[in-house]
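In this notation, each integer encodes one residue's backbone shape. One such record reads:

___
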Amino acid sequence: MNVVDIYYNLVFVIPETILAVMGCLILLFGVFFDKKSNYLYILSQVTLFCTLFGLYFVYSNYLLIGDVRAYSLGHAVVIDPISLFLKSLIVLFTIIIFVYSEKYLRIVGLYDSQYFSLCLFSTLGMFVLVSCGNFLSLYLGMELLALPIYGLVGMSRSYKYCTEAALKYFVMGSVSSAILLFGISFIYGGSGELGLKSISVLIYSGALDNDVLTHVGVVLLCVGIAFKFGAIPFHMWVPDVYKGAPIPVVLFISTTPKLAAFGLLFRILYTTFHGLLHEWAGLFVVMGILSVSFGNLVAIAQSNIKRMLAYSTIAHVGFVFLAIAHACQDRFVFSLFYILIYSFSSLSIFGFVLLLGNSRAECENLSDFSGLFKVNPLVSLFILITLLSLAGIPPLVGFYAKFLVLKGLVDLTFYYVMFAALLFSVIGSFYYLRVIKLMFFDSSLNFNFGIHSSMSRLGTYILYLNSLFLLFFGLYPYPVLSICKALLVSSSRIFIF
């Protein structure tokens, strides 16, 4: 290995190194700093901004190579435009989540070095997952993402259901990890390779066409990934975790891991196993339509806002799966666009749930929204924008995201799937409209709204901008769609080329 190789091996993992080192230091500093001080929060934010700068430095060096992909640590880490973009978004979302939740964490007694360090470690796992170049780094990233979240879900003893939620999530997560590991072992047994590039070469050479172990392994791999998304029938953890975890943790779980999981899907399904499309495409169609139907129907019966949004998440994941049911480039553009829009919508709606909480209770029942417009019209209008976007009603950007997915199904002549997805999407708009009806047309106040008391002024302004983003890009979606297309074009070349 020459000096140039050593340099690039070190440079391409600078962001991961920053997160790992600072996560440990913040956990250590928590012993010495008073919980009432701002040092831990400031240090965490500085860490994330340094990580963003590190990503820019990696991108600058990536451009110097002039190839589709760059590799580090013996092809264990892959650097390409989509991985850098998703990492940047993950860091940006984490920064915003910290801004949203900083004041609320103090109110409910969760302001601790453990919260910040666990979030950083989970972010590190997402980085590894998005850039995985072999199955070892894939599994390492998956576990590094999940294990800190188990701790985050169960870290507060003042929440009634958090321990139960953490145990359920841990047990089901362990099962999904075992399934994922079985899939990896089957693929290794059939191909004799752990590197994604090497496996892709074997698939396109036809060497694995009749290998049963590899085909079974791909299916098990898809099942393990589907669990991380919370798709049907691997959704059991989602409602309990969303209901039982503190709202800042739910805010984190509902956004950044979805971006990392999409990066993994792209890395596995398109660039590696695209040659085995017939093995997994139908599976994603089935999981997609089941998620859309079941998620929307069950959400109607919920009276808890977090459980309702959990089943809403399942329904939105179904649309993502339908978008990648046939893994041509356009479908992945649509799914990337959809996951971006959903992540911003989720960041907005859970941010408002956090904003409406106070020191005595979270705003978690649907009845708690009754009469909100009379108390604070401005907040009600921004929540209205977010809910209409989630429901897919024009001119919000959520409508355009769903329209692209349905259009992709029509192009594939999946007419029955398209009609089913459209029908259940229309049915699902009921539970969003119910919240709107409670806010604007009911007069009873069952909740002591803590407007602006549980979020800083900066966080509130960012939350409003987050909602306006959904309106602006609904009227003019082409910049975001163009970015998605450019990323997929520059990153979608399969590994053998």
The chain has a mean pLDDT of 84. Residues 3-491 form one domain. The chain has 21 helices and two strands.
